[in-house]
Each structure stands twice: as structure tokens, then as C-alpha cells.
What does this fold into?
Amino acid sequence: MNETDLNSVLENAEQPTKAPTFLIVLVILTLLNTGLALLGGVFSLVVGKPSEKEILASKVQMAKPIIELRKLEMDYFVDVFTKLEAINDAMYANFIMFNVLGVFIAGIGAASAFMMLKRMKLGFHAYIVYSFLSILSVYAFVAPVNVPSILILTNAIFAGLFVFLYSRNLKWLSK
It folds into this structure.
């Protein structure tokens, strides 16, 4: 191989190829989700904890469907709503830490998406960490008995799906 051919190969190796369209779609979806979580968490921290009156109004609103579901003898959904009420109570009791943790986790998710766009394989691993943290973060404030299984299962399915879909782009990240 002569020097001209070697320079041509090196120039082509240094030029990053365009990100796959599928990866861009996944990153956009991730940034929408994490962006909304970041904005919601920061907004909550700026506005502050709701007043006792607002918390009571929230409890009343949550009690209405529970009463209706009890009348219809839909015990599973009564249990789910009761557990969601316990999560709300824990969130209000630990308002600042709950929101700070949410902002931190969303930040990890957004950073991991940006890293993957920059072809950093570390971004994929950070996304896995983000996925686990987003699923398990509720346990930092709520006893496992008070967390509806359907909530964890749904979050785990979506997180697993996105990790799987991102893994389809690992070949591009490894270059």
C-alpha cells in the first residue's frame, strides 16, 4: 500500500459515519421522555411542595375511583389505586429528595442518549443504568409491599424494550 492509499484510508477512518436513522428515532424518544421528566422535576422543585389543602384535594380525587371500584367489586384495581395513593403520600413526605432523584435519573438518561449519538459505547451502558434506576427508584421512598406489581412490570417491559432496541445499534457504537 503506498502513502496516498494509506492517507485516503486514514481520512475515511477519521470521518464519522452518519448515525443510523433508527438510533436517531430512539434518541429522540428518549430525549422527549427524559426532557419532560427533567422539566417536571425542576418545575416541582421551583414551585415547591403543595400545601396541605392541595394534598387533601389530591387525596379526595384519588379516593373517588377507589370508592367506585369497591362498589364494582374490582379488588385488584382497588389495591392498585390504594398503592398509588401510598406512593403519592411517600412522594409528598419526601418531596425534595423525590424530585432531586427524578431529575438526577432523567439526567443520566439524557446524557446516555447524547453519548450514544457521539458513538460512545459507554452511553449504552449508562442507558442500562438509567433504565434500572428509573424502575427501582420508587423503592427509595416506598416499601415494596406498597408498589403495584403492574407499575414495575410495565416500566420493566418498556425499559427492556428500549435497551433491546438500542442494542441493535451497538455495532455502530463500537466503530
Summary: The chain has a mean pLDDT of 90.
